[in-house]
């Protein structure tokens, strides 16, 4: 579940997990060199673990073996209790009570490391931590103890499934994550019929949210970010969401309608800004529809992404490339010929060369090595601080799916 966008997620106490760009320039200062094992060159404070996880997951999906040091970097980001923060500049320093652990980063790391295999101890500790911070209504918020939201609950469900758990059996106060999602699903009458809300508003009302709906469909189906192309299902009519399966069908119908209104893509609606195409959330919607078997609209929207997403991905970085690769995979589209672009190559070029992608071009390799050395002067980005509660509407990198960007609609 969003890339999505440029690199930094506005992490927040009650925020979700999809992604949105930070308002300030995310580029680190010259004195703040990034770890050479990290994908992307923007400030990782809010999305380092998220974008690294998506990059590794997308590489694995495309049959690429990631660089060993990039996998090790992700493993070392884990705290002793099993949780992951958005980014720890010095993984040798022990996590403390004020380390801002993050359910979205933790869940993304679990999905990536489970897919790569060989990290059962790491994923087991992470899952135990996730269970320990589940809310009494069965949900998860972005931060431990925060109000539950559709995006966070859904990305945790994906992590549980990836680790071999049965999400419906993971309960707190007798409530499972599916119970929580059903409470966030809108009825079939009124505005936003069939969609999922991110969270209830202050009055307890639910408002349709496209990114939350894409996440909610995946969560209700018990699936993570990687979806296998499946057989097409006939579209279901909206009905009272009494089961996770019906809620997923309702959400898919809502997404199909929303995509059809704007030439097969979603639009962002940030306050005070002109509406613009939302590439990340469109990619998320493709994955969600494919998971539900709504392949007709999923294929139309992935074709739109092939024609229009190149500039967005180049500006947004590794999480965006990963999102597009996952959308391509979900629809059986070749990510190495995505509208004429090789998404896998473009993703690989944002970080260390993968083990299975050694280049025969000595000049390119030397340039890559030089860049890695330049990035390798161990950095320290300063003291962690948590940005207060942000529920930003609109842009999507998907799933929390820019990963964590963190402005969500």
Automatic annotation (TrEMBL):
**Where is this chain compositionally biased, Basic and acidic residues type?**
362-374
What sequence ranges are listed for the domain Prenyltransferase alpha-alpha toroid?
Answer: 52-159
Q: Which residues cross the membrane?
A: 383-403
Which residue stretches belong to region Disordered? 350-374
Q: Which InterPro entries match?
A: Prenyltrans, Terpenoid_cyclase/PrenylTrfase
- Keyword Ribosomal protein set for record: no
Q: Name one Pfam family in it.
A: Prenyltrans
What name does UniProt use for this protein?
Terpene cyclase/mutase family protein
List the source organism: Streptomyces dubilierae
Organism ancestry: Bacteria, Bacillati, Actinomycetota, Actinomycetes, Kitasatosporales
């Amino acid at each position: 579940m969003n890339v999505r966008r440029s690199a930094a997620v506005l992490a927040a106490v009650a925020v979700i997990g999809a992604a949105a760009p930070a308002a300030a320039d995310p580029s680190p200062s010259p004195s703040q060199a990034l770890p050479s094992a990290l994908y992307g060159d923007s400030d990782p404070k809010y999305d380092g673990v998220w974008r690294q996880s998506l990059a590794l997951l997308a590489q694995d999906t495309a049959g690429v073996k990631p660089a060993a040091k990039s996998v090790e970097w992700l493993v070392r980001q884990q705290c002793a209790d099993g949780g992951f923060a958005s980014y720890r500049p010095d993984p040798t320093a022990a996590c403390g009570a004020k380390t801002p652990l993050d359910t979205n980063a933790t869940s993304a790391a679990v999905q990536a490391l489970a897919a790569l295999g060989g990290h059962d101890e790491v994923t087991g500790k992470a899952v135990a931590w996730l269970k320990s911070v589940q809310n009494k209504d069965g949900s998860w918020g972005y931060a431990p103890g925060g109000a539950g939201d559709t995006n966070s609950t859904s990305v945790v469900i994906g992590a549980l499934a990836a680790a071999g758990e049965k999400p419906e059996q993971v309960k707190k106060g007798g409530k499972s994550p599916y119970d929580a999602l059903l409470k966030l699903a809108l009825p079939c009458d009124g505005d936003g019929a069939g969609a999922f809300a991110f969270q209830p508003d202050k009055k307890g009302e639910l408002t349709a949210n496209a990114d939350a709906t894409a996440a909610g469909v995946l969560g209700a189906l018990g699936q993570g970010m990687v979806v296998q192309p499946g057989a097409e299902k006939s579209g279901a009519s909206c009905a009272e969401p009494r089961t996770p399966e019906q809620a997923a069908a309702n959400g898919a119908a809502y997404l199909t309608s929303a995509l059809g209104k704007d030439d097969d893509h979603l639009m962002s609606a940030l306050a005070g800004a002109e509406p613009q195409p939302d590439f990340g959330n469109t990619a998320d919607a493709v994955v969600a529809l494919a998971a539900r078997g709504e392949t007709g609209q999923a294929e139309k929207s992935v074709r739109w992404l092939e024609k229009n997403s190149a500039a967005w991905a180049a500006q947004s970085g590794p999480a965006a490339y990963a999102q597009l690769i996952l959308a391509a995979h979900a629809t059986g589209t070749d990510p190495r010929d995505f509208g004429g672009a090789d998404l896998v190559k473009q993703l690989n070029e944002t970080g260390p060369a993968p083990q299975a992608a050694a280049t025969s071009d000595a000049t390119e390799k030397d340039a890559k090595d030089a860049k890695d050395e330049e990035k390798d002067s161990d950095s320290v980005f300063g003291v962690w601080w948590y940005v207060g509660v942000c529920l930003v509407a609109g842009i999507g990198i998907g799933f929390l799916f820019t990963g964590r960007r963190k402005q969500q609609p």
